[in-house]
Each structure stands twice: as structure tokens, then as C-alpha cells.
């Protein structure tokens, strides 16, 4: 059953949970009020997404099993996106898969994506080209001919506009079938006729290091981690890990780990029962013992005090009062701030 919707977020935890084709952890990279908008359209086989994010952010994650996904920037003249240490410019397409990835975007970012099941993509690719899809290296962006990329971006923009202004049109099977057919044809041509950007030797080495780094983080998702234990566990010197993190994350590992700990604290505060725990207990559990400095830094990063986060205790179940409905909209327009 086709569906569509537009969602607005003021909380990164709720935002990352809204993605349907990918499992990610998203960390805003600077202080400031978080805001993002996400438009989603579900067709018979294809899912189309569009997003605008105000703050720079880092995300780690992977596409969900048995899905093929493709991402691209949707606005010309915006800063490049860093995908696993490789620069992705407007006009490039990233082929995502189920391997772990690091991705970094700048402020005021507009991006789009489309995904479908791996089996459907393989079958459709074979039907269009007459041969099987030879999977391109996942960290190598593809730059299609400009006329094909323009066609993809125009088709994406038209679909997003329909979801925002005339969602009832997307309930017609004939419209969905035509859009889906056009999307499949243009993405296949973009992949087969585009030029692949190769990764440097240094980039490949950094990528292997970051894969081990991320695997260690993934094995310890809910506790604070420190640089010395990570270097020992993954067998990499601090200087080498620092160079890889600077290339892929845009920051040193110590800063990234500190930022990660603050976000772990916030998640713990938002999910805790205020009657059963305290800010002090949660802060200490995450390695913050200078509570005065912690409170000041927390407020600067999240624009609220730790005690305010605890009192608000994030409830991921949406209430009717949180939903603003549009007539004939298959999915409601929602403002999520927990």
C-alpha cells in the first residue's frame, strides 16, 4: 500500500529512529538547537526519502539487511558530504550496503535517498540491462552524466513536492507505477553510465582502521569508551587512529568519544525514570565526575540542563496531540521533540 508523509524533528534520537532503510547512530557535531525535516514516500517496491538538516552531524550505521540503497545531495552548491573518508559532491551518487559506514555532513544540508529490496533491485536491473548487477565498491561515489543526474534530481524533487503539497495524488496506483518505473530506469542508467571515483591507498588504510574502530564501538554501545582501551583493542597506535578519525570524522578520536559520551548521557536521561535515578548517578556512570563542568557543557550542547532532560523522560509513543494532520495525507505530519 503506497504511503507518504512529512515529519519535523527537534530531537536527534527521534530523528534517527525514523529511518526505515538504515540503522544509524546520529551525533550532531556542534552545539545548537537540532532541527531536521524528513519526507518519506513508500511505493510498491521503492522507498524515497528527502531530508533537510540544520546542524552538521556525524552518523555511523549500515543499511538494513537485504536492501539496496542509493544516496545523493539534492541542492547544488552545498558543501560536500564525507562518506567513509571519500568526498561526495552534488552530482554524485553513493551506493550504500550493509557494511558499517561513517558519514559526515555540514550545516544546512539537503540530501535524498531511494531504496528497495536487494532481490527487487537485482531483478529490475537485470530486466533493464539484460545482465546481473556487478556491485560497485560501496565507498566509491558514482558521477553520472549531468543530464541523467538532473533527471534523477527533478524526479526526486517532484515526488517530494507531491508528498508535501498533494499527497492524495500519490494514492493513485497509476501515478505510483509511473513514478516507480521512471525512478528505476534513471537510477540504473546513472549507475551503468556513471564514472566511479576511486579511493586512494591512504583512504583504504584509513577505512580498514575505522571499520575496526566502529566494530569496537558497536560491541559497547551503552558505555563510555576511552582512547587507550580502544587503541589496545584494535591494535592501532594513537597517532594512526587520530589520522583516520580526522580524515573520516573531521575530528580527533578524543573529541568524538567525548561527544559520544554526552549523547549517551542524554539518551539515558531521556529514557530514565526520574523517581528511580538521579542526574548525578547517570553522569558518573558515563564517566563524568566533575559535575559542575559537566552540567555547563551539557547545557551548551543541548540547550537544556541535565535535570530538564531527566524530567522530560523521552516517550517515543506519539500522542494524538503531537500530530497535525493534512487532509487526505496517508501519513500524518508530525513534530517530534519528545
UniProtKB/TrEMBL annotation:
- Which superkingdom is the protein from? Bacteria
Q: Which Pfam families match?
A: HTH_18
- What InterPro entries does its record include? AraC_XylS_family_regulators, HTH_AraC
Sorted UniProt keywords: DNA-binding, Transcription, Transcription regulation
HTH araC/xylS-type domain: residues covered: 211-312
PROSITE patterns the record matches: HTH_ARAC_FAMILY_2
Q: Does the keyword Transcription apply?
A: yes
Gene Ontology MF terms in the entry: DNA-binding transcription factor activity; sequence-specific DNA binding
Protein name per Swiss-Prot or TrEMBL: Helix-turn-helix domain-containing protein
